[in-house]
Amino acid sequence: MTRRLALGLLAAVPVAVVAVFFVLPVGAMLHRGVWPDGSFDPGAVLDVLRRPRTGRVLWFTVWTSTVATACAVLLGLPAAYVLHRLRFPGRALVRTALLVPFVLPTVVVGLAVRELISSSGPLGFLDLDGTPAAILIGLVFFNVAVVIRTVGVAWEGLDRRPAEAAAALGATPLAVFRTVTLPALRPAIVSAASVVFLFCATAFGVVLVLGGVRYSSVETEIYLLTADLLDLPAAAALSLVQMLAVVALLVVVGRLRAVPDPTLRRVAAAPTRPRPHDLPALVVTALTLALVALPVVALVIGSVRREGRWTLDSYRALGGSADGLLQVPVTHALLASLRIAVDATWMSLSLGLVVAFVVTRKVRSRAGRRARTILDGFFMLPLGVSAVTLGFGFLIALDQPPLDLRASPLLVPIAQALVALPLVVRTLVPVLAGIDDRQRQAAASLGAGPLRTLQTVDLAVVWRPLLAAAGFAFAVSLGEFGATSFIVRPAEPTLPVVIYRLLGHPGALNYGTAMAASVVLAAVTAGVILVVERLRVPGVGSW
């Protein structure tokens, strides 16, 4: 009873934070949709759904997310095998390069893809600018790393002996993969595909930059309805539909994941040298690397070319305020982004560590296991809820005492911490769950108290993944745009917000400055991810 009470009190802190800064703002937005005039009116949601434009937006979101998810899985599976089961020179560098796009700001991703397919870009001859294909390229570019990382970590932990036994009995490599490896990887593949679909369906900056006013997803439509048209009931109705779809998807995924997650077995096998039958996977990995590298290269080249000549004028403009368009220099926005990201990192790390500790404690009763599952799912909610909804909900719900926080400098890091929280939890939970509880019991039997046991057993294992989670949280916070665009103060804009403002105003200098700022932001993010990869523990750390 004492142990359960202690765990309950420990869980109460992050529950209270998420309730105040996530459930309350999102609930305020949904209240505007179901109670538009102060009285319960569910028909208002149906009225919004009957609009022809709403139907087109929903269909566009569904089919682009489905196609992008399928492409990401088809490209990511071979790359996961090559980067996590084969040994070759430069493997760590390639793995890091393919991981960087996931933590790049979505505005930067959109700008990089636009520069690649523009009329003056390397792929300009394909005439893809302003088409749905451009959005699909951006979504795949951003999300293929999720498949590579999630499935790759699971592949690292698979026991080789069943596959070797099947091969010894005469099965071809394809038959071994189809009958032995693929069934074992199914939970990881389903998890990766579901997360990619969620990220595609809630993509904001990519669709906003590449789709313009012609193509709109649910996420960008919510932004348009709130920021431009002030149609809050319609935006809230779309947010409600989005949340219901996310819950339904998670339920379906939970039923499909009937096989135990292989990432928790931690039977890491040493990688082997490539063999002739690995050639197709190597070719697909090379194509995936090209897909990731080309937009980044195009962005870097575009930042140093202006009107057909090589110049560093765009980088020199970072020290100014872009012809009076901004209240502060771009470099000031970079420093503000770094400072806010540091605050968001320690917030998400503190909450995530507590959550991971609570949901991985051993419980014997069915009620305890059910409560643990519900608690784990509760902290995953920010993963599938629109960041735009969260940001605008802050303005609605946190504007009156005792929660009048709209002018607080902590509001932006709190919002970014909530966005990064699911990533931190998913990084730490497999590590803590993999610790044998008998080690804690042995430490306790030798006289160690709860805090000493935590220090000598849990922290000794989790410190490297904890630093890796901090790196991921920092990178994600550095590039967060959806919620930040609503609540950031004009005098303290973050760099992604500045980049979007520069893109929204004509002029070669503004466009060049936006690209230069994007290169700087991408370089900082890549440096963080490089450090994170060096801290990674083989066989764990799926997200």
From TrEMBL:
Q: Does the keyword Glycoprotein apply?
A: no
Database matches in InterPro entries: MetI-like, MetI-like_sf
Superkingdom of the source species: Bacteria
- Predominantly, its location class is membrane
Which Pfam families would you find in this protein's record? Answer: BPD_transp_1 (PF00528)
Per UniProt, subcellular location reads as: Cell inner membrane; Cell membrane
Which cellular component, as a GO term, is one annotated location?
Answer: plasma membrane
Name this protein carries in UniProt: Thiamine transport system permease protein
What species does this protein belong to? Nocardioides kongjuensis
